[in-house]
Specification:
heterodimer, A: 24 strands, B: mainly alpha, 4 helices, Dolichyl-diphosphooligosaccharide--protein glycosyltransferase subunit DAD1 (chain B), transmembrane (chain B), transmembrane helix (chain B), membrane (chain B)
Chain lengths: 697, 115
């Protein structure tokens, strides 16, 4: 009854995880670049759908593999036709095989063009035709109608037309819910989005199989259902839309795929257009593209098949604007290229791409470019932004593009989704100038030694300084356009054999400078004199010549360490040992309390028994007797049971102390308590009545 | 003077004993039980004084078990005593049933606390 036929639950979890990752990525920046299906998809398909021993597995898996290959335009390299066809024919020949298997056998045989005898197809057609009249579940409708449609497309001669199509249409429609979702069967109250997709596909099949036309009012009702279903569409921040299933075990990818298949099938058979918001169609396409290349065969099929449905549908064909490279190098004079294709990567109709504006990501500043038209390069099918204006310097930008269709007729077929935001990195080689390192005298500020540096290439300076001097490192960074450049990281590192120290290099405008006053740093340096290696790292995502370079060394002469100076943390001999096992943590338990000697405790145990002994002796002295013990058998039995009951409760307490937990004890105590209460009441009321009789007598 | 005090004391004890001899036997049994419980508690206190109160909850439950049952026994004695007019209408069997029930509840708690 569940949606199992088209979906495995393991894949659902994986898809969900993938979506979470996509969602997490998309929250970070709303602008994103969705790449259309490319050759990477084709090679992934060949890997995912690799036949084992000349077959793809079950008929269902085979049909998915073959369909994926057909959609992607991959030639079937391996010959699976013979064995697959024979198993399909076998299923078709057996009159007892389930409708679902027949459906997939028909699908495979139509994809592989197997030789199935016409008489066999006629027998199957008559069998499938009988299914919908007394079917109650959506799966039965789906597979029988789907099978009939396949036969119709394969051999049109076979009579597959449904006489009571109107009745079947109504029976399926009866399963729909007010919110546009569908139920799997009339006795299952759970409504499902996945089932809605299946139902729409089935209804499309019924329309195409109907011998008399289905009433327009019924079709309009279904169109209304579709609109209601799209009210429940969900959205991510990056503009992708998807359907989520409230029923467990079906992931959003399978659900969205089901709806898309149903929608496009229905739109292509039903008369009149299904009017849906353009951004929904584009968002669904982007959703499938945002998944990238799924690692699961089922997900791969769902993605590719849905994209193909969208591309070939009569609803509207989405156009995807993508940048083959989102990094543009100023130094290499790269040109910004934009490609507009359909989701499956086929060519777009003639159109123009306009760069509406571009601005630095994350800033509120005015845009750096406005309204530029891109030039179309028909050879590579690219739209090229010929010249980046000088206002665009290195950095991370968001470019906003707009697609303008040249032919107004195309606008009815294609959706472009208005403006598309794409993140673009403009990178370049950063100019490093005036780099020098010098030792200054602290009190006068006069330069003691000064060395020019050749940053980005090789340097090996050797300096000497004492604790009364300062070390100064300075350089200038500028972009190709001559503006100041501030990298993410500018770090100076001094490495002694026993310790290493890191300093950030600050900047004012173009000039970067760090001054190390050794007098204030002696303590931080642990009073360690000797050779310090100098290392400088400058790095940024848009800096093409980021580097981490050894500059040389400085010989430091620091004063002797006073008594209480801190010692440097011992550095591990092997730098990789920090990845090794950690030192074992020894747990310190609280020391056990002092206990008295065993003999003393035993002596006191005996001592506690003494009063009890005294109690017994006292009883004897008092001359206690059991004369009052009832002699008649029934009360005597109650009396014995009463004492046994109390004894057993005490024994239960002892057990509770020794091993039982509170719950078992209380349960047993409840039972015993009722028992003791009953017998106790009997015996005590008996005793009371005898004593009152004695009194009155 | 001192002699007379001793004699007085002796006379007092004597009269007390003779008066006590007149108490019904069932009350004497209860008295004996109370004495037994109190002495057991005293021994435990002595033990604690000697070795310390380490398993403190065990010690507490031991003491409380003894004093609790002693208090309950005293209550039983009050109710059973025929000279106590207040409980004239209460049959001793009913009082005994109360005593048993209270003891069972008390010791359930004690056992839970014993650890």
């Amino acid at each position: 009854m569940a949606a199992e036929p088209r979906w495995g639950s393991g894949g659902g979890a994986a898809a969900l995880l993938l979506l979470l990752l996509v969602a997490a990525a998309s929250i970070c920046h709303a602008a994103s670049n969705f790449l259309p299906v490319s050759d990477a998809h084709r090679s992934a398909a060949l890997e995912l759908f690799a036949p084992v021993d000349g077959s793809f597995g079950s008929l269902e898996e085979t049909s998915e593999a073959l369909q994926s290959f057909d959609i992607l335009g991959i030639e079937r390299r391996t010959n699976v036709r013979g064995s697959t066809c024979s198993s399909a024919v076998e299923v078709l020949g057996s009159s007892s095989s389930p409708v679902k298997d027949v459906f997939y056998a028909l699908k495979v045989s139509s994809l592989l063009k197997c030789d199935v005898r016409q008489s066999q197809l006629e027998a199957i057609a008559s069998r499938l035709k009988s299914v919908p009249s007394d079917a109650s579940s959506l799966n039965d409708f789906y597979y029988s109608i789907g099978g009939l449609v396949l036969i119709k497309n394969q051999i049109p001669v076979v009579d597959v037309l449904l006489e009571d199509a109107d009745k079947v249409f109504q029976a399926i429609k009866a399963l729909s819910q007010s919110d546009g979702r569908w139920r799997y069967s009339s006795d299952n109250p759970v409504s499902s989005t996945y089932a809605a997709g299946m139902a729409l596909e089935t209804l499309a099949g019924v329309i195409s199989l109907a011998s008399n036309e289905i009433g327009q009012s019924r079709i309009d009702a279904v169109k209304n259902d579709i609109l209601k279903l799209f009210d429940s569409i969900e959205k991510y921040d990056d503009g992708t839309f998807y359907f989520d299933e409230k029923v467990d075990g079906v992931g959003p990818l399978a659900t969205t795929s089901s709806v898309v298949q149903g929608l496009t099938a229905f739109a292509s058979t039903a008369s009149g257009r299904v009017k849906l918001p353009e951004d929904n169609i584009l968002g669904l396409t982007k959703y499938f593209l945002s998944i990238g290349i799924p690692g699961d065969a089922k997900e791969f099929f769902n993605q590719v098949n849905s994209l193909s449905c969208l591309e070939n549908s009569r609803v509207s064909v989405p156009l995807i604007l993508a940048l083959p490279a989102t990094v543009v190098s100023l130094t290499n004079k790269d040109k910004l290229k934009v490609r507009v294709t359909t989701a499956l990567g086929s060519r777009s109709p003639p159109l123009k791409v306009k760069l509406v504006r571009a601005f630095i990501s994350g800033s509120k500043d005015a845009s750096v470019i406005e309204n530029q038209e891109l030039i179309f390069d028909s050879e590579g099918a690219f739209h090229i932004l010929d010249l980046l204006p000088t206002s665009i310097d290195v950095g991370k930008y968001t470019f906003v593009f707009e697609i303008v269709l040249q032919d107004s007729e195309d606008a009815k077929v294609y959706v472009t989704g208005g403006q598309t935001k794409v993140p673009v990195y403009i990178s370049a080689i950063i100019k490093i100038e005036n780099a020098e390192i010098s030792v200054l005298d602290s009190d006068l500020g006069s330069v003691d030694t000064q060395k020019k540096l050749n940053l980005g290439k090789e340097d090996d300076v050797s300096l000497a300084a004492n604790h009364l001097q300062k070390l100064r490192l300075s350089f200038q960074l500028s972009t190709p356009h001559g503006h100041a450049f501030k990298p993410h990281q500018a770090i100076l590192k001094l490495k002694h054999e026993k310790a290493e120290h890191i300093f950030l290099v600050g900047n004012s405008g173009k000039k970067f400078q760090v001054i190390l006053d050794f007098l204030g740093l002696v303590e931080k340096f642990f009073y360690l004199s000797g050779r310090y290696d100098i290392q400088l790292s400058i790095g940024d995502a848009v800096m093409e010549n980021s580097f981490c370079q050894d500059l040389g060394h400085v010989e430091l002469d620091l004063p002797e360490a006073p008594e209480k100076a801190p010692r440097p943390a011992a550095q591990p001999d092997d730098p990789f040992s920090k990845y090794g096992p950690k030192a074992e943590i020894s747990h310190i338990f609280r020391a056990p309390e002092k206990r008295p000697s065993e003999n003393l405790s035993l002596a006191f145990l005996a001592l506690t028994l003494l009063p009890f002994l005294g109690f017994l002796v006292g009883l004897l002295k008092l001359g206690v007797n059991l004369k009052n013990f009832p002699s008649a058998p029934v009360p005597a039995m109650f009396a014995i049971l009463f004492h046994v009951g109390i004894g057993s409760i005490l024994a239960l307490y002892a057990l509770f102390w020794l091993k039982l937990d509170l719950f078992t004890t209380l349960k047993a105590l409840g039972l015993l308590g009722v028992f003791v209460m009953f017998v106790g009441h009997r015996i005590l009321s008996h005793l009371a009545s005898t004593s009152s009789k004695l009194k009155s007598a | 003077m001192a002699r007379s005090t001793g004699e007085d004391a002796q006379a007092l004890f004597h009269s007390l004993r003779s008066a006590y001899a007149a108490t019904p036997k069932n009350l004497k049994i209860i008295d004996l039980y109370v004495a037994f419980a109190v002495f057991t508690a005293l021994i435990q206190v002595a033990y604690m004084a000697m070795v310390g109160s380490f398993p403190f909850n065990s010690f507490l439950s031991g003491i409380l078990s003894c004093t609790g049952t002693a208090v309950l026994a005293v209550c039983l004695r009050i109710q059973v005593n025929k000279e106590n007019k207040e409980f004239k209408d209460l049959p001793p069997e009913r009082a005994y049933a109360d005593f048993v029930l209270c003891n069972l509840v008390l010791h359930l708690v004690i056992m839970n606390f014993l650890g």
